[in-house]
Amino acid sequence: MKATSIPLMGREEEPTLFDLSEPGRRAWSFRDQGFAEEWAAEDLIPAEHLAAEPVPVAQVSERDLVGHFTRLTHRQYSVDLGAYPLGSCTMKYNPKLCDDAAGLAGLANVHPAAPASLTQGWMALLSDLADALCEITGMSACTLQPPAGAAGELTGLLLMRAWHEAQGRQRSKVIIPDSAHGTNPASVTLGGYQTVTVPSDDRGCVDLAALRERLDDDVAGIMLTNPNTLGLFEEEITEIAAAVHEVGGLLYYDGANLNAILGVVRPGDMGFDIVHMNLHKTFAVPHGGGGPGAGPVAVSERLAEFLPGPLPALRPDGGGYEWTVPARSIGRVHSWHGNALALARAWSYILVNGGDGLRRVAEAAVLNANWLRHRLRGVYDIPFDRPNMHEFVASTKSLKKAAGLRALDVAKRLLEEGFHSPTVYFPLIVEEALMIEPTETESPQTLEDLADALERIAADPEDAALAPRTTPVGRVDEARAARHLIPTWDAR
Amino acid sequence: MKATSIPLMGREEEPTLFDLSEPGRRAWSFRDQGFAEEWAAEDLIPAEHLAAEPVPVAQVSERDLVGHFTRLTHRQYSVDLGAYPLGSCTMKYNPKLCDDAAGLAGLANVHPAAPASLTQGWMALLSDLADALCEITGMSACTLQPPAGAAGELTGLLLMRAWHEAQGRQRSKVIIPDSAHGTNPASVTLGGYQTVTVPSDDRGCVDLAALRERLDDDVAGIMLTNPNTLGLFEEEITEIAAAVHEVGGLLYYDGANLNAILGVVRPGDMGFDIVHMNLHKTFAVPHGGGGPGAGPVAVSERLAEFLPGPLPALRPDGGGYEWTVPARSIGRVHSWHGNALALARAWSYILVNGGDGLRRVAEAAVLNANWLRHRLRGVYDIPFDRPNMHEFVASTKSLKKAAGLRALDVAKRLLEEGFHSPTVYFPLIVEEALMIEPTETESPQTLEDLADALERIAADPEDAALAPRTTPVGRVDEARAARHLIPTWDAR
Amino acid sequence: MGHYVPHTDDEIASMLAFMGLSSLDELFDAVPAAMRLAAGSLHMADGLSEFETLDEMARLASLNRACGPDLVCFAGGGAYDHELPAAVKRLAFRSEFVTAYTPYQPEVAQGVLQTLFEYQTLVARLSGVEVANASLYDGASACVEGLNLAVAATRNQRVLVSAGVHPNWRAVVDTFAVGTGHEVEMVPLQDGLTAWGDPVDAKPASAVLVQFPNYLGCIEDLRQARAYADAAGALLVVAFDPVASGLLNTPGSYGADVVVGEGQPFGTPLSFGGPYLGLFACKLEHVRRLPGRLVGETVDVEGRRAYVTTLRTREQDIRREKASSNVCTNQTLIAVCCAIQLGWLGTGGLRELALRSARAARATRQALLALDGVVAHNHAPVLREFAVRTPLDPHVLVDRMADEGFLAGVPLDDGGLLVAATERRTRDEIDRYASAIEKVIR
Amino acid sequence: MGHYVPHTDDEIASMLAFMGLSSLDELFDAVPAAMRLAAGSLHMADGLSEFETLDEMARLASLNRACGPDLVCFAGGGAYDHELPAAVKRLAFRSEFVTAYTPYQPEVAQGVLQTLFEYQTLVARLSGVEVANASLYDGASACVEGLNLAVAATRNQRVLVSAGVHPNWRAVVDTFAVGTGHEVEMVPLQDGLTAWGDPVDAKPASAVLVQFPNYLGCIEDLRQARAYADAAGALLVVAFDPVASGLLNTPGSYGADVVVGEGQPFGTPLSFGGPYLGLFACKLEHVRRLPGRLVGETVDVEGRRAYVTTLRTREQDIRREKASSNVCTNQTLIAVCCAIQLGWLGTGGLRELALRSARAARATRQALLALDGVVAHNHAPVLREFAVRTPLDPHVLVDRMADEGFLAGVPLDDGGLLVAATERRTRDEIDRYASAIEKVIR
Ligand SMILES: Cc1ncc(COP(=O)(O)O)c(C=O)c1O
Ligand SMILES: Cc1ncc(COP(=O)(O)O)c(C=O)c1O
Fold this sequence. Notes:
Number of helices of chain C: 12
Mean pLDDT of chain A: 97
Largest sheet of chain A: 7 strands, mixed
Order of helices and strands of chain A: HHHHHHEHEHEHEHEHEEEEHEHHEEHHH
Largest sheet of chain C: 7 strands, mixed
Oligomer: heterotetramer
Helix content of chain C: 25-40%
Bound molecules: pyridoxal-5'-phosphate
Number of strands of chain A: 12
Low-confidence stretches of chain C: none
Strand order of the largest sheet of chain C: 2-10-9-8-7-3-4
Strand content of chain C: 5-15%
Largest interface: A-D, 207 and 211 residues
């Protein structure tokens, strides 16, 4: 119960809910249902199914429940507390308006199996959102079911498979660059394909010659992130698309980096056939400590008939929306209609920004990242020091050699400076990588502060090795966690 | 912008809104009003009134606004973070349910000057609440207008004055005990009376003999807190009431300590004529860092006709509620109907607890305070070591003499232990007072932790003198603040 | 019974045993038996679940007609229907702000203290005087405290109050004057503005209280008020609408000594009239008479900037019967809302807010005056609120207009109707409003 | 244009100048000119103010009929109308939980990490197996991952899926089986329960997937399922309703190897179906095949207890194409809601929740079966959901019942109606519901 667990007053451990538990204590209360017959459990459930003992949960008062979780929030950094330049994650500020929008009872209290006649508002919203995402990506049709980026990838790969099968062919390989995010190869496997890796060239982009070598009629397609995970735009995208299409392959667009190009260039216009978006990156759905997100998948005309269903569509008779299933649908990919409230947040974000605002988002995101790269020149290695998009990758390679400064030390030391760390050790092709994505919502002043902090850190590598010292806990023993696994309180 | 200002990551200062301001930056946006004629300021306002320059406010983005105030909350202790045994303040847990109740649009968006026909729900709520407060205090009628305890006191004193005047007499003195809260004498002055102090006896209660000496026909009444600010029940209350009434005086009940006696004994039954309640203490209206509260005043039958108006009352024709003004009303004491949303919170608190629950509140509050007094015996001085009510007063008098431990040191050192401090140096009649009110919502485990912490502190007075060292700022230079006044950023 | 007392029966028993007691009742042995209630004596229902409680509250709420799309608000009169951005609500409702007490231990209260410091800075800027306190209850109490300060400063009990001051605030001034003994004299209006009379005839007084813009929405001439106050040897106390400072000269710029007001327009919903926010600011020379809390900047033992409540010797807990005021609990959380809302508005947004409100008021006024039978109440300049006269009793009009989906305004005692418009009101709403008025007065 | 980009024009100009650029467009020079859009090319409206945006969202919301007093919910089928206490919403919506990323830096993410550790503990307890992950997307994805684990563990592609598993979940299993190559065989129901057939005839399989209680609300006999799985050499994968663990034996107590499920009933509103919460737990022996994140307890450099994501070598960012799953972003915030809601319920509240739901279901069932023309769909034991047959097509019935103020249930493909009741449903609502059914089927 002691509040010393909050850094505001002390730095002790916070007990768990189970440590706080006292037999007989409670927070719950329920309404009087007004039953005359107060059936006992035995009257309702056959004896063989009835648990002899209730499952132990925890027994705390509402007061202690509130104290506990409020204290835990004081041990947690977040965008609302400060900058979060975590590359590839697009940790932009999430407008509070979107919270209000998603909190509307008329959205939040709708049953997913209610008939279409009762859910016209939701269907209109989903349909409007799908249209907007198509417009933004240059695609023809869109499913909102996938609940995150990885789910979108797998959906996309199954669409790819369905399309090839419809063409009457079996293909077994999907190409991904060596800079790709881990979900890409993992999804390829789940999609029933083999991963073929294409190396990056010395400019950090897909090595076109190497790609051509790998292309044959067993290639189902390629998954690309553009700008890629180095923050670089694949300048030869037109050539890549032509080459892949030539062998009958499809181009899959991993939309994790879509923030960079909103309103500036569209995957569809680059030649992509399938696009997933991470609404929890580009469209300001808050990350929630690791989700929920939303990973809609949009496709070009020729793939539309394979999309998962049901999809909301205007009835031909003009009588509102109805659910339709595309002719050759691959089937459902979500229990219901996707992460609906996250989709509602994204729709409100699109409305408030508008077409003009979305382009401004991309411009400012790219401006910030480039400015920061310029600013950090000479301080850290910048392996690919040319105009980047919304993020760039720095490295401590030289500093490590010279003074032992690892990317990890920078990350930990930066916490003391009041910033979340960049993404480290990704993409894998850069040694001691620091992947920095400031996002458009950070001001020039914040960037300046961040750059100053990074400069200070580079200047004192020994100190960085000791960090962090001012956080609720110091460096955490990750090896021990894996070696001596304690995944639950009961395993202590 | 740097989040190092939060104790989670560092302990630096948080810049002010004005330090974060950048010309031209903004968070605001407004709807398109759709006016074809876009009148300029000059078209609307006579030139002589128009400001030449806009008043400087601050210019920040929504992102920085959110970051700034979120970080500030990490520098702020609160009930939701832990125990707050601040004597006389009844810092109980505020059920979250009451937040939801007060947030209902049907309550929050009602205009105070709307006609009664549009505000029947509010009038019913206020009327129900007033009735309940009368029942709880044993009174006949109640005004909900006073926005805090002190405002209630002044209202009560004006009622006292009006009543005396109605009896055709002028009186000039009001008696208060030496243990009274500072608002009591301050209100007496504003009520146009002179304060006469009656000393406490060696049992910590009103010295009945001394009181009798002070009673004469110039005494308008007496203001008492019962249990008093030492947490002791005035056992001779019947005798006190008789004596005051005998000289034609009235008894005023300062309800700050009502939490102790809910459902157990009523001020009306003790002989009081006028009662104020602090809904922000007893009825769980959260303190808001210093308000808003609500300080309704309930009176006995004979004083009802003097109450401030308007009051909601059922129409004789049964057609709902109407506003009525008592026959000889002293007039309004608030711009509108009091702190209405705070009143709504209190009403929801009363509903959820019910008559049975309110008594349980008092029992547990008194149980906790007595247990803690027992537990701290021998650790601190307990000047009046006999059964107390919801709070008790300890003292470091002996420890100060022996080892220099002041009440202030205990307060500061306790912060490091993760608890808010008790009220110190009040009531004034106890040297080095520590006034401890655990409230009913703290569990026995929390009390045990608190007692342990207080024990540790008593054992190491030297260490206590150095505290607090783990808080966002250390001991604050109060003298300098007064000597070198900086009340605004512009005065820096 | 509620569910917020954590003690289990076993715990109660063992705590009692620790003290040598055997029942909870014994805890109350100090209470004379004759007056003690048996358990269950209160005539009150038993406690409900949280959900039933909320249902009952929702039922009560449903008996009101709240302002919104179904009752578009053209009423003001001291309570205004401004936009409330999501960020402001989310921030101000963080539980650290909501569930803290008055910042008695500054080391763990820098959040509230710094916010109040920023609030004071903002209120001082809007007022145009040097110092502001950390809040009072509402507009009315701020007026009362303003007069009290003036009386204390001048040792003259005579206070002059413009009839243009909000009638409820004047009523509260009158109520409390009975205790303090102030002699309140009302100065009448003439065509919407206070008719001070010739300063040459001014008799000594402690205070001149005027509202800016006044209750009728009219922009008072503060130079005249200042001149009259000077002639009377009085302090000029201006009760201002802080929104006005987005466009108009501040009260301080006219030489106001004390600036009071109602802070509701910044960040507080209509709330059936409370909790609102009493604004209080004054010239630095009066700071030792300032009522209520004042936050000042200082340093901690290690020299770090820190904030603390200061000049506490003015206050009741120290000065007791000689305190500058009896106020203790104030409206801190509403001051927090106000500071955050002003931060959201910023310099540009505040001006836009005032300008858009003024535009909407102008459009509404034009639309009404174009109607047959509607005439101006007065001819003084206005900001975002104005009065008209219609052929109908204003109470009847307001009732009928509710059926049309509008809160038409606030009826005036003289038969007029007070109409306000804010930045929320659109051309479309205004047109529909005027049409509805036309219909109901026909 | 939105208002969330903080840069002023001056700032943009000076940042560009710092880089030797003169326009924002130049930032995109790497993009081939042929595909670059001119500003304003998107066929999208310009940005709105926050308030207009919320108005539009409210307009959309108003086109739905949400469950509540005007549409009392008797529908379940995987989405249940439970009470949501205020405390849970307030806590889970604190911005530290809402706006954090996956806890990559444990030193500043102990809040999320410890909450997930508590969540894992709770899910493991309710499941009755030793370890639970930090969440998956929803019930369907949890089923898919459960089967994937079983296939990987047994190296057999054949999976048996009870026809009593939620049809949407089965559909998702089928969709993803195309990629993984699982051979999905459906095992039919007989009078509400899975008809496994004689274990003696069981052919080798990797997994037996059964829902508990199943989609029709019927309480499956997990001993039979276990026996059949054993005979087939398969893992027993149970898709459970976590509310059931308030009264029934846990899946783990029957020997389930993997326990999956939908966590929506704990702390998540109906939300039109998402975000919900995929529960995933398994025996410790399978922990190295666990999909998704796992939080473990450890210590920091100073020996203080600390939490961290662990066994990360299972995950896609390290293991890439050989990862146990592709999941990255999961549903952490919903897991946080679930943990807090379970904390609020506690041991006693969970049991009460299940019991009161079961009582309401019993009362509803009795009331319906008393009606002329309504008959039982099957005769298996149920917890809080059951199916009936009425003379009316269930879709027509649901439509007509909406006019009566009820969401009557979920239509079944076989013409039945699936009806659920929770602790929220009262005698009065049930009586009114039954009367309305009587009316519409008449
Ligand atoms: C480049 C890239 N691709 C894919 C993903 C996976 O998206 P999600 O986490 O939404 O499943 C991420 C997420 O970090 C990413 O950065
Ligand atoms: C005993 C006592 N009386 C009166 C008051 C004044 O109440 P308020 O702060 O609500 O004005 C207090 C507040 O602390 C108090 O403790």
